[in-house]
Amino acid sequence: MALGLIPLASPMAAQKVASRPNILLIVCDDMGYGDLGCYGQKLIETPHLDRMAREGMRFTQAYAGSPVSAPSRASLMTGQHTGHTHVRGNREYWTASLRQRAFGENADYGIIGQEPYLNTHRIIPEMMKEAGYTTGMFGKWAGGYYNTAYPDKYLTKEDGNTDTSKSRVSSSASLPHLRGIDCYYGYLCQFQAHSYYPNFLNRYDPQRYGDHYVVMDTLQQNIKHRSAASGDRDYENRTEYSSDLIHRYALEWLDRQTQEQPFLGIFTYTLPHAELWQPNDSLLQRYTERFRGQDSGFRGQFQSWYYRNGNRHAQFAAMISRLDAQVGEIFDKLREKGLEENTLVIFTSDNGPHEEGGADPTWFNRDGRLKGLKRSTHEGGIRIPFLVKGPRVPRGVVNDHQLAFYDIMPTLLDYAGLDGSSASRKSSTREHPYDGISFCPTLTGHDRRQERHEFLYWEFHETDMIGLRMGNWKLVVKSGRCALYDLSKDIHEDHDLSALYPRKLRRMVSLIRREHTDHPLFPITLPQSP
After folding, report:
1. Of the ranges 224-228, 281-285, 431-435, which is most confident?
2. 380: in domain
3. In this structure, what CATH number is given to the domain that contains residue 433?
4. CA of 198: how far to CAs of 90, 131, 156, 305, 473, in Å?
5. Within its chain, how far is the Cα of 9 from the centroid?
């Protein structure tokens, strides 16, 4: 029996579990709505994801949980929108005042990570593991912090959360191995994921290494060379590229899976997030030649979060195509193992496109005619690519169902033959709110049975923005000021109609004020009732 699995009561129960579909959820980082060929991209090659769209379902009105990474992933994991979920921003636990640890000649933070998920609210891998699935996660965690000096000492507070000062002597109780993950490899801290050539990655793999808790996997070749923050171009001599390391680990984990045990894989890959720096292989060279003379970039800049490079357009395009190739290898592995016919694969992005590290979304037209970028609740910051392929999913279908990340939890439960309503809006209470609606009927070709949202909701404190979509109407609130748009006629959100539709405005403002729960860590300016 695989480690950490719930014992099965009988051969009949074993047969029932084994017949359940496997699920792979691939969530990339900062890919815009228009970055793939199947969504209209003309400059970047994405043959494997385009094939996935042709052989499965492509959604045109799918939304992230937030316009930025950690809260968007929290919305996915918890089944809650950002008016309810505990994590609503990229609150990080590293600070310059905390003790640093040395890796070779390079210093790194002794405490890493983000504001933890509440332990009193179950997340997707916990639910799936309880149902008999083995679980693996590879890439960003973004759900808790880790103290390198106290890796095996965790918080005892019931909800797993505390203030930063307490983290000096403990690690978060919301780490992968404590939240339903059987195998993990990647970045616990998304701040450290700003570099593709880090000093270390984090690992939890009891089956292969006998790990009892999350450990640090030092990248021995990288630490022989200076970090980007040092201001030394020796950084360019680092060769252990995290994107490849994480992807290879995920493939190796897939290779361990069998047809007898259902699995949930959450692949939170970091491409195409900045920094724009990667191996100078044939893929990058092809785009460098293609965009020669068109790449008005800047030379490398150190002492910042990202290493910046002069061929930024080629770098970004190669990152998208590299991710596409990795998805192709995932499907190859499923076919090799005889698992493709019983595996649901979802591909999506955590938020809209970014300009960080020198990325240029305007040049690629990769926001797909949408207004706004990452950190904005306009469409460009939250509308995302969303592809699905697997058993019972119709082939070659383009669907306009409106869904958000918090719908994924009940959908996966339903698809696995479990009770999705137990983690949906139907079961929501003040003490345990859920905001998702399963879109399993749509996913399996039964649109007529599909329940639909009255509204979708987002808030983000860093830019003091709120968004609410109700049908074709979209309300964007910036520092308490409202603008109302009709997306059926104004997809770019240029024409504020709030003065023409006061009743609609009042209804949508009342929904915002009802859905928002105050949070001391993530304050937001609510609109006043008109």
Report:
1. 281-285
2. yes
3. 3.40.720.10
4. 20, 36, 31, 12, 44
5. 35
